[in-house]
């Protein structure tokens, strides 16, 4: 008999489930006999206590388990007959008007939505492209040289970008010093953005021995909440200005960067290959984001609250794990407001359902060959790629992570092949976030 499904609102459904008390008692008696063979009860040798005594001590928990088992089977059967796809865990409530010899329950749950895919030919997406040439390789080499610079103090040098300045500073708000507002012999490199822009600007052009007082307004979203949005008066005294001395582009430099033979040409080739891989990954990510945004914009359907709640809890757990890794002592108990994750959780759930439907309808499953190729490509970022390949291929869960990425790649390729595509050339510096 087809169970009656009551539609409550949106994706919420309710059905009644009936369990036979005779079936429950049959299961209870079978479990009691099994437990009685080994039960340790005071006053009796193990396995010798009467069944009635065993029932008194173990009966309630066994009966509870038996009811849940029978209820689970009845609910599974009812859901299967109704053809519903349940999202999340059903909420079960007992009913008072059960027929004689039965126990009745009401199961309330959400179902997965029916998804109508948008017309892909009407989607407008942007495909990003970038050129990696000699200039980009040269800029990357310059960055690597600056990262390995030695600094030499210059007595009469006016501080400029890339110089390392050492200074003493004192900051006051309304005439009062504040925590973290003072330091001695503090060093930083100008132009790297380590300090607030006003602080760096004040230090530029100063020489060793010079002193300056200037105002600085902390951003409203500054990490130090006690000074965020407030204006401080800083006094700085430069004790040293050091000029960067970049390493020569020679065999020794190549060896420092892991080129064992000290071959500059081989180093340049490696650098080019690395930035080409990185640039490719970033333009693919931009194109993917455009495709996902277009799909979401063109799709409208209800999403199960249970899936959103589960995603929110996953976000909270990840946030706690990150806090633990940072060494916060109360990471397990500190309050983390769930609402800050809700919008992103809804987006992820909606996108996941949409992609799953698209993968199924267009048969975009990840093939073993695609998965291996993606693993091999990813492994090239490491010194021993063969070990990385083995690491992923030897474990089903790790392979599943790559399969998910390949699935998304397949979706992007499929959508781009049918949508209205606008090609966008992205400057390398913009792509890499260097401007």
Automatic annotation (TrEMBL):
This is Trigger factor. It catalyses: [protein]-peptidylproline (omega=180) = [protein]-peptidylproline (omega=0). Pfam families: FKBP_C, Trigger_C, Trigger_N. Its EC number is 5.2.1.8. SUPFAM superfamilies: FKBP-like, Triger factor/SurA peptide-binding domain-like, Trigger factor ribosome-binding domain. It comes from the Bacteria. Coiled coil: none annotated. It is found in: Cytoplasm. The gene is tig. Keywords: Cell cycle, Cell division, Chaperone, Cytoplasm, Isomerase, Rotamase. Belongs to the FKBP-type PPIase family. Tig subfamily. Transmembrane segments: none annotated. Involved in protein export. Acts as a chaperone by maintaining the newly synthesized protein in an open conformation. Functions as a peptidyl-prolyl cis-trans isomerase. The keyword Magnesium does not apply. Consists of 3 domains; the N-terminus binds the ribosome, the middle domain has PPIase activity, while the C-terminus has intrinsic chaperone activity on its own. Residues 162-222 form the PPIase FKBP-type domain.
């Amino acid at each position: 008999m087809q169970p009656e499904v009551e539609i409550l609102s949106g994706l919420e459904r309710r059905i009644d489930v009936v369990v036979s008390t005779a079936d429950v008692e049959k299961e209870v008696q079978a479990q009691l006999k099994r437990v009685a063979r080994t039960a340790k009860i005071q006053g009796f040798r193990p396995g010798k206590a009467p069944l009635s005594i065993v029932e008194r001590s173990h009966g309630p928990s066994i009966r509870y388990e038996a009811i849940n088992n029978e209820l689970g089977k009845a609910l599974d059967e009812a859901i299967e007959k109704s053809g519903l796809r349940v999202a999340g865990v059903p909420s079960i409530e007992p009913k008072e008007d059960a027929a004689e010899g039965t126990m009745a329950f009401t199961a309330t749950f959400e179902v997965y939505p029916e998804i109508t895919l948008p017309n892909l030919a009407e989607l407008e997406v942007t495909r990003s492209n970038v050129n990696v040439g000699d200039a980009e390789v040269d800029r990357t080499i310059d960055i690597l040289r600056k990262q390995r610079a030695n600094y030499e103090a210059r007595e009469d040098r006016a501080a400029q970008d890339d110089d390392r300045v050492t200074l003493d500073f004192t900051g006051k708000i309304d005439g009062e010093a504040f925590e973290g507002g003072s330091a001695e012999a503090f060093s930083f490199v100008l132009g790297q953005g380590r300090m607030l822009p006003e602080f760096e600007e004040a230090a530029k052009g100063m020489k060793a021995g010079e002193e300056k007082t200037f105002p600085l307004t902390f951003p409203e979203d500054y990490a130090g909440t006690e000074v965020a949005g407030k204006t401080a008066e800083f006094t700085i005294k430069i004790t040293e200005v050091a000029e960067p001395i970049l390493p020569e582009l020679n065999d020794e430099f190549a060896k420092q960067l892991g080129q064992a033979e000290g071959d500059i040409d081989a180093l340049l080739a490696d650098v080019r290959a690395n930035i080409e891989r990185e640039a490719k990954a970033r333009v693919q990510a931009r194109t993917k984001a455009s495709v996902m945004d277009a799909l979401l914009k063109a799709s409208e359907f209800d999403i199960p609250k249970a899936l959103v709640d589960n995603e929110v809890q996953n976000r909270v757990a990840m946030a706690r794990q990150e806090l633990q890794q940072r060494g916060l002592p109360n990471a397990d108990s500190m309050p983390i407001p769930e609402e800050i994750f809700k919008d992103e959780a809804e987006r992820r759930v909606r996108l996941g359902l949409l992609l799953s439907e698209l993968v199924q309808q267009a048969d975009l499953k990840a093939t073993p060959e695609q998965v291996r190729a993606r693993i091999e490509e990813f492994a090239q970022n490491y010194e021993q790629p063969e070990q990385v390949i083995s690491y992923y291929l030897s474990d089903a869960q790790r392979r599943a992570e790559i399969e998910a990425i390949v699935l998304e790649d397949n979706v992007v390729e499929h959508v781009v092949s049918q949508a209205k595509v606008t090609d966008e050339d992205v400057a390398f510096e913009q792509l890499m976030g260097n401007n």
